Amino acid sequence: MPRKTSLFLVQFLLLVLVLSCDSKLVFDQYQSLPNQWNKDEIISFKIKAPDTTNNYNLFVNIRNNKDYKYNNLFLITALEYPNGKTFIDTLEYKMAAPDGTLLGEGFTDVKENKLWYKGHKDAFRFKEEGVYTFSVQQAMRKYGEVSGIDNLQGITEVGFRVENK
Hints:
This is Protein involved in gliding motility GldH. Pfam families: GldH_lipo. By secondary structure, the protein is mainly beta. Strands 1-10-4-7 form a four-stranded antiparallel β-sheet, with no helix packed on it. About 4% of the residues have low confidence.
């Protein structure tokens, strides 16, 4: 291999390595969906508390594609502590601009949205040692209708992320 080519290859690999490092990352996991999310499907993640002294940021990560046709997303979330105590929230996130352009990161029709869950206003601390369970399900409804959307189209993956503050 010519010296110039090998030097380029080494530089490229170093760049990929540097860009892939994420010093804040504590936990990051996804679960795939078949391009739709049934209203009864609860997605859960288990995480062992990293420690009980530091503060963390918690995120819900959503990957969606052009089949997602709403400007917002309603989620029902639950965080179960090791002692069984559970905190349940109904959250709303903006997913599209007023002109219908999907928000999020990505160059193709697949967008990734890193949505705040805990830590953005008040610091989040894992107060108990042990395993926490984060659960999420979609709670979307069409305007003026009481019953939920059975199968929400366009959601391809749901994730949960924990970062050092």
